[in-house]
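Input/output pair, single chain:
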Amino acid sequence: MRRTSSQSAAMTGLIDIGLNLTHDSFDRDREAVLDAAQSVGVERFIVTGSSVDASRAAVNLAREQPNVLFATAGVHPHHASDLDDEALTALAALAQEPAVVAVGECGLDFFRNFSPEDTQLHAFIAQLELAATVGKPVFLHQRDAHEPFVAALKPRRDALSGGVAHCFTGGPDELKAYLDLGLYIGVTGWLCDPARGDSLRRAVPAIPLDRLLIETDAPYLLPKDLTDKPRNRRNEPRYLVHVLAAIAALRPETIDEIACATRDNTVRLFNLRLD
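Output:
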């Protein structure tokens, strides 16, 4: 795979901070998907770990392509019931891997409650404590659980090296709460959803430029306003450029200024060492 784009592109150096590259929908064409993204200037990718097995797979991918792929290690709240002592020990080992740049995806999801709420909270706190121990930022998930999420995070925030509200979908009030906690804000193609994205569209202009990150959450959250949607409806990291343009349409900065800022913010938060 190319390490940088070999074609002239409007944007270069973009980093997708949230890509579920271990998802089985990428099994047949994973390299081609990354090459397509690089051809439009998305040069680096952080592969999300959502379970112990997925985190291990993310680390393996990152080892194969250092300086292009990075990984997170965590247990999504959907899988919180799986985070027993043995799994937490395995996760702690993964979190110390050099390829791992954050602990997570972790947090609370009371929308589906695939794991009981108290179990989610226990798993979330355990991963916040793990992140503090290994000195890496947290990659955070929150859906329909804003108040308990903030209540769990706030007393532990000072021990953390930083964090991002991954796939932020909230409005100005939630944004202020997360900014007050010193979090970065990850924006996805949710912004491009005419039905669900209104709150986020109102919040995006208020995100400080030095706290803004961009991500696709592929294969999920395909931007709904794409004019040429893929037949398989799969989101890909190449559509990060579309997300960037949607953000720029709501802000005073140029698209180039936002591209440079989000790259610098990503490097700073995740302490990336780019060769």
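The beta strands are 14-19, 42-47, 69-73, 100-109, 138-143, 163-165, 184-187, 212-214. The CA atoms of residues 209 and 257 lie 9 Å apart.
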